[in-house]
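Here is one such protein, fold included:

. . .
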Amino acid sequence: MKNYFEESDFLKATIQKNVTIQRKPQVNTVGHWTLLILFGLLAYGTMTQQFILLAVFLAIAALVKGPVMLLWGIVYSAIVAFFPPLGIVLSLLFFLINLGTVAKSWRITLTSAYFYLVPFAGSLFRLISKNESHYLLAAFVAVSILGLHFLLNWLYKNNSLSRTLTWSIICVPYAVLVMFLPARFRKFKTNKHLKF
């Protein structure tokens, strides 16, 4: 598929000349520091504390994505039903927004994997070694947080916002849970039909 924006120098120059987006540095935002603090808690905590924090992430995402998504679906359906041309415009707008998300998603996936897998690898290492040094743990947490900081800066340079990035990373446990739910429901339905 051709990328007309990348190939057209005139289009790039026109957009860059007429559109200026001023964003504050993303490193000094609440979202950036929230991610670093939550990651530090994950990296420093025991396996039980990590699972409790994951349960909190799941609860927050379920509360927001569940009822809010239902409400948004009702509002969007009403807008489309009463004003069909506005529905087409909104659909096109959401399609364009999703194209940008798809382009950035592999970077966010990489950062999310680092956010969750590094603390779990550290706690597994602590469980296996059984000889836990507080200095070693503090060094692991500091180096891990520094690594996350550099990953986040890399994402900010590729036009990510700290607020949306924070929400995306917090929603990962919820997305993983939802991804596995249909398989379980299919097994439950097939077992139910076999009983009859």
Summary: The first helix runs from residue 4 to 7.
